[in-house]
Amino acid sequence: MKSEQRRSALVALGLLALLVVPGTFVGLSLTAPEARAAGATAVTAAVTGPTLVSTNSTTLFQVSGWGGPAISANGTLVGSVRFFSNLVAPNLTGVSLSPPTANFTRNRSIAVNLVTGGAAESLTISIEVSSTYSGKNESTNVSYQVNVVVPYVISATIVNPTSTTVTGFPVYITLDGNVIGVVNVSNLFAGQKFQLSYKYPTLGLSSGTHTFAVSLVQEHGLVTFANGQTVYTESVYVTGSPPDYTLWYIAGIVAFFGAIFIFVTRVAARRRGTARR
Question: Domain of 210?
Answer without folding.
Answer: 152-238
